[in-house]
Each structure stands twice: as structure tokens, then as C-alpha cells.
Write a structure and sequence with these properties.
By secondary structure, this protein is mainly α. The chain has two domains: about 60 residues, Multidrug-efflux Transporter Regulator, Chain: A, Domain 2 (Orthogonal Bundle); about 45 residues. Helix content is about 70%, strand content about 10%. Helix 3 crosses helix 4 and helix 4 runs antiparallel to helix 5.
Length: about 120
């Protein structure tokens, strides 16, 4: 039987280009749960996968609360169908928010460009 692959806090931080403080923050928020040997944190492959999901969710604009909800669904939904639907619904909602923001930004840019042109 193979030993479980584990990672130190420094290895995981380096692999994902985040700080060790970030990992401790996610741990404090109960998003990842490394084992501890004294002061030493030992991360499992599952923790690594959760961290990957967390960081992807952050890049996509999800809040930590939304990410936590999706992680909880992932663990409780054996077939992953419900979790996938929730994620897709959340992504669609974020797409609409971003479209609205882009429209607002485009409008503001046009107004600013017009103002600059007017005074040049």
C-alpha cells in the first residue's frame, strides 16, 4: 500500500504561488484542514485539490462564502450533479454581473474620453 502524498505549508504555498499566510487564512476559514504535528501543518492531496478549487473560484470572482458553499456541496453530493448545477448557476450569475459592469465601464470611458477631447 502506498503512503499518502503530503505537502508542507511551504511546498503548497510555492506550488500555488500564494503566501503561507494565505494558507493559514483559508485554514482559519475552515476551507482547508491540514493535519498538525505540533506546529507543523501537513497537507493532503485533498487539501491540495481544495486549494486549487478555492483559488480558481477567487479568480472567477466568487466570494469565500460562495466557494465554501460549493465545497460543502461537493463533499455532500456523491454524484456531483447538484454541485455542478450550483457552480454553473453561480458562474452564470457572475457573467451577468460582469457584463453589467463592463457596460457601465464602457459608458464611463466614453464619457471621460469625450471630456478629454473637449478640453484638448
Amino acid at each position: 500500500m502506498d503512503a499518502e502524498i503530503t505537502f508542507s505549508i511551504n511546498e503548497l504555498a510555492s506550488d500555488f504561488n500564494v503566501t503561507t499566510r494565505t494558507l493559514r487564512f483559508y485554514e482559519a476559514k475552515a476551507l482547508i484542514s491540514p493535519k498538525k504535528e505540533g506546529q507543523r501543518r501537513i497537507y493532503s492531496q485533498s487539501d491540495r485539490e481544495r486549494l486549487s478549487f478555492i483559488l480558481r473560484g477567487k479568480r472567477l470572482g466568487f466570494s469565500l462564502a460562495e466557494i465554501a458553499e460549493m465545497l460543502d456541496l461537493y463533499e455532500s453530493d456523491n454524484k456531483k450533479k447538484f454541485q455542478s448545477k450550483v457552480i454553473i448557476d453561480n458562474i452564470k450569475e457572475h457573467i451577468e454581473i460582469l457584463k453589467y459592469k463592463r457596460k457601465d465601464i464602457d459608458k464611463t470611458l466614453q464619457e471621460m474620453l469625450s471630456l478629454v477631447k473637449e478640453y484638448e
